Amino acid sequence: MLRINLLLLLAVMMSAIFLVHTQYESRRLFTELDRAETESRRLATDQLRLQVEKRAQATPQRIETLARDKLQMKQASPAITQYVQEGSATGAAVQ
Q: Would residue 44 count as lying in a domain?
């Protein structure tokens, strides 16, 4: 009878230890999931912000300003346009 009681006590203790370990693991995984969801929301916000910045950088006005200031480009006009005629023997440009 004593052996059965000790065996049952050991089984109850092992079950309790297993239950505590399972609860601890569950809580650890839940906090890890919560951190991952927070990081996901932060990354989604960053992605939206970067898309807005990208659209702002690619506006025609900004591109034209950069082309004029940094690349020294000028607006195309008939006065500075050179036309090349196909079949011209000399390949001279006509203004």
A: yes
Query: How many whole angstroms separate alpha carbon 41 and alpha carbon 67?
Result: 37
Apex 54 CA angle, 49 and 57, nearest 5:
125
What is the spatial distance between Cα 69 and Cα 85, in angstroms, rounded to a whole number? 32
The parent domain of residue 62 ranges over 2-75
The amino acid sitting at 12 is V
How far apart CA 94 and CA 92 sit, in angstroms, is 7
Please name the residue that has the structure tokens 């050179």. 82
Kindly state whether residue 80 falls inside one of the protein's structural domains.
no
Rounded to two decimals, the pTM is: 0.54
Those residues whose C-beta lies under 8 Å from the C-beta of residue 83, and which sit 6 or more positions away, are 93, 94, 95
pLDDT digits 0-9 by tens, 45-90: 999 999 999 998 888 888 888 888 888 888 878 888 888 888 765 5
